[in-house]
Amino acid sequence: MTVAPLPPGLATLADERGRPHDIVDDVLERLAARAGDVAFISLVDRASLHARADELELLRRRGVELPLYGVPFAVKDNIDVAGLPTTAGCPAFTRYPDRDAHCVRRLLDAGAIVVGKTNLDQFATGLTGTRSPFGVPESVFGQDLISGGSSSGSAVAVASGTVAFALGTDTAGSGRVPAAMNGVVGLKPTRGLVGTTGMLPACRSLDCVSVFTRDVVGAAALLPVLAGPDPDDPWSRTPHVSEWYDGALRLALADGLDFAGDAAMAAAFAAVAARAADHAIETVRVPVEPLVEVGDLLYAGPWVAERLAGLEPFVDAHPDDVLPVIRAVLERGRDFTGVDAFRARHRLQELRAGCSRIWERSDVLLLPTLPTTFTRAQIAEEPIARNLVLGRYTQSANLLDLAAIAVPAGTTADGRPIGVTLLGPAFSEARLLPAALALFPPEEIA
User: What per-residue confidence (pLDDT) applies to 238?
Assistant: First the structure.
């Protein structure tokens, strides 16, 4: 997939664009400075990192083209990296893959350096970042704020400056909620655009690999490396041609937004939306209720059974090794019948038909990534109900087959992060990426 003519932007992926050995030493220093950080579950050892640096320098001398030469990255621990354990946030589930996931291999072939595996909500089930036996990362904004999940560690690793970018996954918002909570960019590509071989899915028919970067240009630089056919992934798809945004942008804004009583977040988003509208040639209003109804199908409908379908043998054999909150979510999958599944599928098709009309009148849709924020203590009080609040405006994207990019949009008056998301139809990344730059220029983000 080609996303030119955006600037390559590879320099924005790492400040350390020098010799790979120097980059490795710098990363090791950053990791040491964050000793005790629970963003990572496992790390590549020093000797192996320097061996990788030797390999890259040799390849460069041989004239091999390496667009990500020496760029350090991290991988969510439900995606395989050969030589490191894959735990999916559950020690009893741990396995040792002998090959890299398809997406990881593409990055390594481009010259990147994998640093380690990151923390996550167990089995990628959740949006809080608090559902892990390996510790609960805090947002880089402090205040006991959650890091967001399920790709918690990946977002923190990027936001803290430990790595240049990180892979996550996204079923209900796991690549966007943590981006919002940590002030980084989270790109959720169209389902099937990035191969998922070597990734443990939450909902196989909906999941996609996501990427966290420090800015939009970095995400644009990474997408062509990650995207491409995966012959071993039955869900892999060939992208359609998407027109590049040419400056004439029609922006859809949603009516009926609910910020869960967070007046400061509501006011902040209104201001952000007004600024974005100033950069558009036209704005249209669309109701948010159909999007929310689609999203509700994911956790309140039979797609919960799809989560159980992939994990049922393990859950049945190791019930005590699954966190109670995760087991409660998965066990609900047993309550749905085949009739329930078809009824929900029919309703989804009706909602899809209605929501598809958004793109007849607009190019991108702007939504808040989060209605509000929560602290780790608040999530502990109501772990399931508040998880659903976090996903209010993210859960519909994969069910509707949309592409999305979450970008930071400043902070509230009390210092909490504001995140917004641009959405478009499948394979609209070439529109979304430059639109994000145009609507949210870095110099306007306070």
Answer: 87
pLDDT in tens, 24-47: 999 999 999 998 899 999 999 999
Helix (H, G, I), strand (E, B) or coil at 140: coil
Residue 7, number of CB atoms within 10 A of its CB: 12
Cα atoms in the Cβ-side hemisphere of radius 13 Å centred on 25:
5
Q: 211 with 226: CB under 8 angstroms?
A: yes
Cβ contacts of residue 125 below 8 Å, gap of 6+? 131, 150, 202, 307, 326, 329, 330
254 and 286 in contact (C-beta within 8 Å)?
yes
Q: In Å, what is the CA distance from 434 to each residue of 95, 226, 394?
A: 40, 18, 21
pLDDT at 35: 87
On whether the CB atoms of residues 291 and 283 are closer than 8 A, the answer is no
Please tell me the distance from the alpha carbon of residue 412 to that of residue 268, in angstroms, as a whole number: 6
Q: How far apart are CA 273 and CA 292, in angstroms?
A: 19
Catalytic residue among 76, 152, 236, 428: 76
Say which of 139, 150, 152, 210 is annotated catalytic: 150
With a cut of 70, which residues of the chain have pLDDT below it? Answer: 1-18, 241-245, 445-446
Name residue, tokens 């979510």. 329
Measured CA to CA, the distance from residue 330 to residue 63 in angstroms comes to: 50
Res 244: pLDDT: 61
Active-site residue flag, 188: no
State pTM to two decimals: 0.95
Q: Active site residue: 154, 174, 236, 428, which one?
A: 174
What are the pLDDT digits (tens) for 316-336? Answer: 999 999 999 999 999 999 999
Token code pair at residue 272: 């952000």
Q: Does 76 participate in catalysis according to the annotation?
A: yes
Q: Please report the DSSP string for 228-274 in residue order.
A: S--TT-TT--PPPP-PPP-S--EEEEEES---TT-HHHHHHHHHHHH
Residue 429, token pair as written in the block:
């990344």
Q: Give the β-pairing of 282-287 and 208-213.
A: unpaired
Does the annotation count 150 as an active-site position? yes
Distance between CA 102 and CA 106 in Å, rounded? 6
Inter-residue contact 177 to 390 (CB < 8 Å): yes
Cα–Cα dist 54/45, whole Å:
15
pLDDT of residue 443: 75
Using the Cα atoms of residue 369, residue 372, residue 373 and residue 375 in order, give the sign of their dihedral.
negative
- The rounded distance, in Å, linking the Cα atoms of 276 and 84 is 43
Kindly report the backbone phi and psi dihedral angles of residue 438, in degrees, each rounded to the nearest multiple of 5, phi listed first. Answer: -75, -40
User: Domains of the chain by range and CATH?
Assistant: 1-287+347-446 (3.90.1300.10)
